Amino acid sequence: MHKDFLTIIKEVTGATDIQLIEVIQELWSGYGAILRYGLTGSDRNRVVVKHVRFPDRVHHPRGWNTDRSHRRKLRSYQVEMAWYARWSARCGAACAVPHCLALETRDEETLMVLEDLDEAGFPQRRETVGEAEISACLCWLATFHATFLGCEPDGLWEQGTYWHLETRPDELEALTDLSLKRAASAIDRRLRDSPYQSLVHGDAKLENFCFSPDGRQVAAVDFQYVGGGCGMKDVAYFIGSCLAEEECAGCRLLHRQLPGRRGMRAARIVAARNLLHITQTGSGPSPAIGRCRSGGRELA
Q: H or E segment at 79?
């Protein structure tokens, strides 16, 4: 880690000293790590630090070691910094995200100092979910899409998500499901042509949601692939990350479980319109979610 970064963490938190508590996660292909630091002399107990360093050689665990994937990964960290600098403050409690304390770049390294969501009321992660957790995540997505409905993705990906066709020709070529391979361009076109464009989280899988102890409230992390798009991309990817194909009737929760509070009305309308448009144009999530699920694991 660059010598300036520990000083920056202390300055932005008001801490007199900091201690590394744990490495939460190594970043994909050796690009750095997500770390939790304890603070002394600050009004916060802990912060989460995302430290990115750009390696000379990339070691992708599944073999996609192309220049294209490397360039896209570098761009993804620039996008995440733009998200926290320009966009994240628009998110309210119903689509909670970490508060950003600092963004810095030194040479080939970047630093993001973020609120620790464990301290903010979201200390749990889920490997399996029930109806309450699915509903909470769908409400988060609907609110997020409503918040940014019609926004141009300035500084973000023009097309959000890390798996849309324009940036995945290698993986598409390797796809063995021929029926899905033939339909891929038409599905992509219909999603891009949806009139209800917003920002999409871009990597809305279960592991990127942090839960309250009762599972009824969530916050989201990991905004490397946030950008423009139809919100159903997030919904289908989320459902595919936590349900098997035969369980995908759970998509009906999008209509049934969204709360009726006045402040959520726009979120419910956006979610319903996205779902209705995609299903009526023939590219609805239910028949393909199982494929998205297995495809997501292959291409992550």
A: helix 67-82
CA distance 270 to 144: 10
- AA letter at 169: P
Whole-prediction pTM? 0.80
Specify the residue for token string 């993986």: 171
Return the CATH number of 131-299, one of 3.90.1200, 1.10.3470, 3.30.1490, 3.30.230: 3.90.1200
Q: Which two tokens stand for residue 14?
A: 């008001």
pLDDT for the residue numbered 292? 26
Which whole-number Å values give the CA distances from 276 to 125, 255, 256, 280, in the listed order? Answer: 31, 11, 14, 6
Q: H-helix or E-strand containing 5?
A: helix 3-13
For residues 121 and 219, give the distance between their C-alpha atoms in angstroms, rounded to a whole number.
9
| Residues forming beta bridges with residue 36, ordered by sequence position | 22, 48
Task: Read off the tokens for 242.
Answer: 């936590």
Consecutive H or E run containing 185: helix 178-192
Closest CA to 191 of 165, 225, 223: 165
What's the rounded Cα separation, in Å, for the pair 293 and 300?
11
Q: How far apart are CA 271 and CA 162, in angstroms?
A: 21
How many whole angstroms separate alpha carbon 240 and alpha carbon 286?
A: 10
Model confidence at 275, pLDDT cuts 50, 70, 90, reads very low
Distance CA(212)–CA(120), nearest Å, equals 9
Res. 70 pLDDT band, cuts 50 70 90: confident
Query: Which architecture does CATH list for 3-115?
Result: 2-Layer Sandwich (3.30)
Tokens for 42? Answer: 């600050």
